[in-house]
Write a structure and sequence with these properties.
Elements (H helix, E strand, L loop, with lengths): L2 H19 L6 E4 L12 E3 L3 E4 L8 H19 L7 H12 L4 E2 L5 E2 L14
Parallel strand pairs: 1-3
Antiparallel strand pairs: 2-3, 4-5
């Protein structure tokens, strides 16, 4: 997947949240070449203002990119509303509510929108 395509998915999801909330969402996307993403399932993280994605996102399948970014956007919404104490499962539930699809976990425990199982496996970080 090209950088442009990742940014297109990001912008489409951001616009959906903005339409749902009726207000702008202050968040950016950075392809993060500085931080390590040591585990195979480590693709993205956010501080609430920026969603950082690993360069390996550029080789991810579309269903993963979509699932990962939906999940990170839900973190952003929680953080920007002052809720820093949310769980990963709560994040998935919010993403599902905002985007209308279940967040699945594929064979490598990576978020997806088209293959895998739900809810988030219990052995993953909470």
């Amino acid at each position: 997947m090209s950088k442009d395509t990742v940014f297109e998915v990001f912008n489409r999801l951001k616009q959906r949240i903005e339409r749902l909330s009726g207000r702008p969402l202050a968040v950016g996307l950075v392809i993060d070449y500085k931080r390590p993403y040591p585990k195979p399932r480590d693709f993205a993280q956010t501080d609430g203002m920026i969603i950082y994605v690993s360069p390996k996102m550029l080789s991810a399948e579309a269903h993963r990119v979509e699932g990962l970014l939906r999940h990170e956007f839900a973190h952003v919404v929680f953080i920007q509303s002052g809720n820093w104490d949310h769980t990963e499962r709560e994040t998935d539930m919010l993403a599902e509510e905002m985007f209308g699809d279940v967040i699945l976990y594929d064979s490598e425990d990576i978020q997806s929108i088209s293959e895998g199982r739900s809810p988030r496996p219990h052995y993953l970080p909470k």
